[in-house]
Design goal:
Layout lengths: L8 H9 L5 H14 L6 E4 L1 H16 L10 E5 L26 H8 L3 E6 L33 H8 L5 E6 L5 H7 L2 E4 L19 E6 L2 H11 L17 H6 L15 E5 L9 H16 L3 E5 L7 H16 L18 H12 L2 H14 L4 H23 L4 E5 L15 H6 L5 H6 L3 E8 L9 E8 L4 H14 L11
Helix pairs in contact: 2-3, 5-6, 7-16, 10-12, 10-13
Length: 499
Amino acid sequence: MSAPHEWSVVELGRALAAGETSSVELTRHFLDRLETHRDLGAVLSLDPEAALEQARAADARRAGGAAGALLGVPIAHKDIFVTRALPSTAGSRMLEQYRSPFDATVVHRLADAGTVTLAKLNCDEFAMGSSNENSAFGPALNPWDRARVPGGSSGGSAAAVAARLVPAATGTDTGGSIRQPASFSGVTGIKPTYGVCSRYGMVAFASSLDQAGPMARSAEDCALLLSAMSGFDPLDATSADRPAQDFHAQLLQPRSGASASRPLAGLRVGLPSEFFPAALAADVDGAVRAALAELEKLGATLVDVSLPRTELSIPVYYIIAPAEASSNLSRYDGVRYGHRAAQYKDLLDMYKKSRSEAFGPEVKRRIMIGTYVLSHGYYDAYYLQAQKLRRMIADDFQRCFAQCDLIAGPVAPSVAWKLGAQGDDPVAAYLADIFTLPASLAGLPGMSVPAGFAASGEGAGMPVGLQLIGNYFQEGLLLQTAHAFQQATDWHRRVPGGF
């Protein structure tokens, strides 16, 4: 019999339901793996006793007749979600000593579904970054090659799932921070439509962009988690007021006119020419096109479309997101909570020293950019123009969806880069988000599905992800398509050596 860390979330749920294992046994197993592989840098905090207490409660619920696909399944959370049982740092020295008096809605809902919280996972500071190198507590490492980044900002979540340290984890996606690390680390991740998952209790970066989502091995696992995480929350003013959905049931529902050999019959998949530029790495291009050929075999039809403002998504995002970050991070002033400088002359000096000491370089950079574009004389020239272009980018997608059901392409222009490779050039890291930013700006759902590995060159052996983008509230179609692809391929089952 295989070890529990080799089982998917779905398989763990079935084993628990059949009485083949207990939540306590699973929790101990995964706690041991998390402790053994602390050198991967994925874990920021864990509390074994608190986790085992939750596991015992889950076992008691099952013994009392309760059931549920997630009841007793251990998971972990990105340390951007506040939790009572564990510290909530957002990867920053600013919140190093902070303990939340409440759980984020996403954490609370998954706990209600019976999941056991194993740990809080590493992330870029305040979710600002594409590599997890901006964490104040050191980078998470890519389990496929420890000399490379796992992607960011949800790098700890991606690394932990890829290395089988946890069956699944939560992440957040502001400009690609679920999809890009999922691609770089060879796991599955989905960013739902903006508003599908509550932002209450998620440490804010850019409020009009931040969205929670699950990261796991497969689309089926993600569907189970997203069903539990999502739904209207009166505590979040941006929460979409829609009835709860069973994404797992949608994923298993056959398409009209489909067959066992052609489960995607009738599906139109749009290929934006802008997602396949000449600068796209050859190995990424090859893996993505092979994945698209597989979708064709499964019955899908490929359609050429255009997203003409794709390149503009980078300047638009890096005006809007820093502007919102400048506003959101003004609350960390050393007065109410967070780091306070030990010595200061007056109130203004306390503000300056507290923020200078506790914020990292990337956070300071984005605060400065955001403050500049919101300042008198520049608001109209930069921020207002960026918001207009954001609307145009969203309109481009709607024109595409008149011709296709979903959009496909690469997640990133290259595979994961070496640690420190972009340390002196933050703009290079910003440019790596070019294929994920448009969907984020439009508030659309998107996901990354393992689609192969770089076959040669400097990045040989590193994972490549296929990005799927749907129209608003089409998470079910995305998951269904990804599931059909994963039933025909085994890329999502590959495990890095040593784990």
